[in-house]
Amino acid sequence: MFKFFGRMKTVVSSELNAMLDKAEDPVKMLDQFMRDMAEDIREVEAAVAKQIANEKMLKRKANDAQAMVEKRQKQAEQAIEAGNDDLARRALEDKKDHEATATTLNESWERAEQDATSLRSKLDEMKKEYQEMKLKKDSLKARAESAKTRTKMNRTMSSIGNDDSKRGFERMEEKVMQFEAEAETSEDMSQSSRTLDDEFEDLGKNEVDDELAELKKKMGK
């Protein structure tokens, strides 16, 4: 019934030590521990309910026995008033039997009540510790998830700066430089292919442009 406390002690004392073992997932292990604790609490709740029911049954029987004691007492008095001593004697004898039964039942009820009170106290303690462990579990799960995220990020960052990545980047840089060199060479070749007449034609265009500008100036345009 109280194996819960053994598990609780194990979780609290070892904390992440066992759960961070390579073969164990801390998040899954924490969830499993909480399921075990919840199951233990349900078992104790059932035991408490049974004990309370037993306590109530004993109390009811003790009350019934006491009621019979009072009933036989009144009947004995009635028999004496009626002058029937034999009937009164038998009523008092039965009264004594019920008194013994009532005494025994009351003693049993008192023990049952103490046991029920103790079990309820233990159950309250277990539920309190369960809530504390639930908060601790949430904190540990958050830490575990954070650690996983950091590990993943570190691995990603390390892969970005490795030799393969650098060599690949350098190859792309060389490709761009090669494209730029090819573009410059193409421009140079295009310029060198111009004929002497092409250059004089461009020169003539420039003179016409100058003359047009001068004319506009004279005309106030």
From TrEMBL:
Where does the record place the region Disordered?
A: 94-117, 133-168, 180-221
- Pfam family of this protein, just one? PspA_IM30
The lineage, from the top, is: Bacteria, Bacillati, Bacillota, Bacilli, Bacillales
- Name of the protein in its database record: Phage shock protein A
Which species is listed as the source? Oceanobacillus picturae
Q: Which family does it belong to?
A: Belongs to the PspA/Vipp/IM30 family.
Question: Where is there biased composition of kind Basic and acidic residues?
Answer: 133-148, 202-221
Gene (name only): ydjF
Q: Which InterPro entries match?
A: PspA_VIPP1 (IPR007157)
